[in-house]
Write a structure and sequence with these properties.
InterPro entries: 6-PGluconate_DH-like_C_sf, DUF2520, NAD(P)-bd_dom_sf, OxRdtase/DH_put_Rossmann_dom, TM1727-like_C_sf. This is Short-subunit dehydrogenase-like oxidoreductase (DUF2520 family). Pfam families: DUF2520, Rossmann-like. The protein is an alpha/beta fold. Helix content is 53%, strand content 12%. Strands 3-2-1-4-5-6-7-8 form an 8-stranded mixed sheet, sandwiched between helices.
Amino acid sequence: MSPDRVTSDPAPARLSVGVVSAGRVGTALGEALERVGHVVFGCAAVSDASRRRAETRLPDAEIMPATDVARRSELLILAVPDQELDALVRGLARTDAVSPGTLVLHTSGANGVGILAPLAGRGVVTMAVHPAMTFSGKPEDTDRLATACFGITAADEIGVAIAQGLVLEIGGEPVGVPEEARTLYHAALAHGSNHLVTLVVDALDALRDALAHEELPGQQPVEQRPGGVAERVLAPLLSAALDNVLRSGQGALTGPVARGDGATVSRHLDALTDLDPRIAAGYRAMSLRTAERADAGDDVMNVLRDNE
């Protein structure tokens, strides 16, 4: 499959796709490509969980070694964890497993296209195509790709065009990321998504404890598990806060820190420290950053620094 055919046909060419490996990202992307007519013929899956995932999500794909997947692919997707990508690429290069003319993309956010250099040449087109999405390993992952942005880095215009075409085919939005900015791009996404999970889990722990001691007449005891009252209390608040900040930026800041209410912040810290000093430490760190953004004044800053 030549790059010219991929970019010049009125309709995108149907590709024979191989996936290494059958993790959460690889199976979702493979499934999304199958939905638009590409054929995932094979995937590499080592662990029992990966094999089960491949059998469920990509039932027509044969499970085979990574080198065999690479040799038979027109489009080779390398969806291994970031820290495994370099060794995989070098191993495929040593065995000449990637045929001339193959399209090769990886899904790592932390790496650009440079890490694929050992495979480049002989008509091989290399691309970094990272879905800016969190993956649970469940079928809804594939649906979410249709609303996701994809960070694209390629060595040349051909690679950019092919990567953009593949992303647009499955309903995503391609976003160009310069090679030298990949680490900052990935850090921003990790800071926003991963740390949001930690923040919300801490908030849920504190809220469950706050609600565990009093029930309204006839109310069932507060569930100390996911999906309980604490989640129902927080969900609309968090959804509104996220919507507000995406619309208004820093102007969405509310609450005692933004208002400069040092007395309330101090009481918060005392209560959280009694519950779990680690949650209190996280609250203090985020409050300091919030106070800096909001220019909250000395009252709040003094409380936060006194608690360092």
